[in-house]
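From the shared-data thread, chain only:
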Amino acid sequence: MADMTEQTTTRFVTFITPNLKRFDLAIMTTNRFYGKKLITDLQSGRTAIVGQDDLEQEGYLEYTYKLTEEEATDLSQFLELVVGAVNFTD
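Structure, as tokens:
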């Protein structure tokens, strides 16, 4: 069991893909999750911990956010600009 409080940074982003799919995201940066971002799709309420390795995993965004392959490709292209390298610290 754990109960922790920490300061985080949250970035709110809205964008529309060339195929007119709208994304409303809350991207939280925290000291947890080895530097990965906590990303919430505000339209669906789905949240995932996302790092560069997750973006490279086939089908991860489709499964996590219930997207088509095309929608996931558009989201991945944006997230590659946002998600940094994973930091393994103790």
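The first strand starts at residue 9 and ends at 16.
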